[in-house]
Design a protein that fits this description.
Elements (H helix, E strand, L loop, with lengths): L1 H16 L2 E4 L4 E5 L8 E6 L3 E7 L3 E5 L5 E5 L1
Antiparallel strand pairs: 1-4, 2-3, 4-5, 5-6
Length: 75
C-alpha cells in the first residue's frame, strides 16, 4: 500500500514540475500584451533566448517574462 501511494505521489510531482520552454530562433521578435498584432508591443525577444511557455493557442505562445508577467509571442 505504501509503495502504491508513493508511486501516485511521484507521478503527480513529475506532472506538476513538467514545464515546457520555447527558444527564440529569429534575431528579433515582438512581445505583445495580448495575442493579436494590433496589441501594443511591450518588449522584444532575441535569438537564443529561452522562455517558459505558460499556454498557447493556434497562432500564439504565452510566455513568462522575467518580471513575472505573461505576454504573447507570435508562432
Amino acid at each position: 500500500m505504501k509503495l502504491y501511494l508513493f508511486i501516485i505521489i511521484a507521478i503527480f510531482c513529475v506532472r506538476v514540475n513538467a514545464q515546457e520552454y520555447i527558444k527564440i530562433i529569429r534575431p528579433d521578435i515582438n512581445i505583445r500584451m495580448l495575442p493579436t498584432t494590433s496589441s501594443p508591443i511591450v518588449g522584444h525577444a532575441f535569438s537564443d533566448e529561452i522562455y517558459l511557455l505558460t499556454s498557447e493557442n493556434e497562432k500564439w505562445y504565452s510566455v513568462l517574462l522575467p518580471s513575472g508577467e505573461s505576454r504573447w509571442i507570435y508562432k
